[in-house]
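Anyone up for a design puzzle?
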């Protein structure tokens, strides 16, 4: 009789025996550390919020409600002369006079917005930045407008007064400019000035005038010295800028063409025809491109009834003296260089 193989139970490990073990309770020291950490986080958030709120409140009070801040007895009056810098001609004395800060005022009492408006009111100052430097110094930084032309203004029955016009069209009286600088500026004509809120409205077209003057001044100084009067009478309607000079009663520039090329044409005509104050040209129209009409004016005294204007079209080539056409040679089909001027 065969023996049946024995059935032995599977071996088991002690790890498989169920064990009911409760989690280890946190000690008193652990609970204390955990509580302290939570308290630090809450305190940090509260402190940051308080600092932010205090800073915002202080800045608001200084800027808009300086009188609500208690005056510190150990802070004296602000210095009468500010720490002043500018990119123009104004001085620290002008700034102190314009700001008109009371002698007994402290730095904390100053309203920077009000002081800034006083500096900007003249029109000569484009940007004014003011800062408080404790304990007693006011810092003033200015960016000024540069005059492009002069304009004579008669307001009502008052005597005519000279004003200046800047590139952005702002009209202002100006202060601190040297006489030699003022005498080089051309006069402005053909404009209508209107007041709004106590100030003149900006003159339209001054940006184009400034570009023309800059081209003439830096590329052809001898031509710029001839710019005595600049008229904007036809600027709005035709885009024309009229220049009056001792050698030509009217030189018309157009804003639709490059000023550099038109100045080259003007320079060419002056070299070819050699007009003088005693024998000036009557009119040069540079608004027609290469074809430039020129009107001559007979010398003063050549006729008993006064000077007579005669017009012709001159060719800038060798036949110019025969008076056929003013058509400039291919030299001016591209932008002329300074050598060609």
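Challenge accepted. My sequence:
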């Amino acid at each position: 009789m065969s023996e049946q193989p024995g059935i032995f139970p599977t071996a088991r490990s002690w790890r498989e025996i169920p064990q009911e073990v409760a989690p280890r309770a946190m000690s008193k020291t652990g609970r204390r550390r955990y509580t302290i950490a939570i308290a630090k986080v809450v305190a940090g958030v509260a402190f940051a919020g308080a600092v932010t709120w205090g800073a915002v409140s202080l800045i608001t009070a200084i800027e808009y409600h300086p009188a609500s801040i208690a005056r510190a007895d150990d802070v004296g009056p602000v210095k009468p002369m500010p720490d002043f810098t500018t990119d123009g001609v104004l001085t620290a004395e002008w700034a102190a006079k314009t700001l008109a800060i009371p002698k007994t005022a402290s730095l904390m009492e100053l309203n920077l917005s009000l002081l800034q408006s006083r500096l900007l009111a003249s029109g000569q100052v484009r940007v004014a930045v003011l800062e408080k430097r404790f304990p007693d110094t006011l810092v003033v930084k200015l960016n000024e407008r540069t005059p492009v032309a002069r304009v004579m203004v008669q307001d009502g029955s008052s005597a005519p007064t000279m004003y200046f016009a800047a590139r952005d069209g702002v009209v202002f009286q100006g202060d601190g400019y040297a006489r030699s600088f003022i005498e080089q500026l051309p006069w402005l004509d053909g404009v209508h000035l209107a007041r709004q809120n106590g100030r003149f409205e900006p003159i339209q077209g001054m940006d184009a005038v400034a570009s023309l003057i800059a081209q003439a001044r830096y590329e052809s100084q001898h031509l710029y010295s001839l710019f005595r009067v600049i008229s904007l009478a036809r600027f709005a309607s035709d885009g024309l800028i009229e220049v009056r000079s001792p050698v030509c009663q009217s030189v018309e520039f157009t804003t639709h063409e490059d000023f550099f090329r038109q100045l080259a044409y003007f320079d060419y005509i002056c070299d070819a025809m050699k007009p003088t104050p005693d024998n000036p040209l009557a009119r040069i129209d540079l608004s027609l491109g290469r074809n430039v009409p020129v009107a001559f004016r007979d010398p003063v005294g050549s006729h008993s009834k006064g000077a007579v204007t005669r017009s012709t079209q001159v060719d800038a080539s060798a036949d110019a003296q025969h008076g056929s056409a003013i058509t400039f040679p291919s030299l001016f089909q591209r932008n002329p260089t300074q050598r060609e001027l």
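A detail worth pointing out: The longest helix spans residues 28-64.
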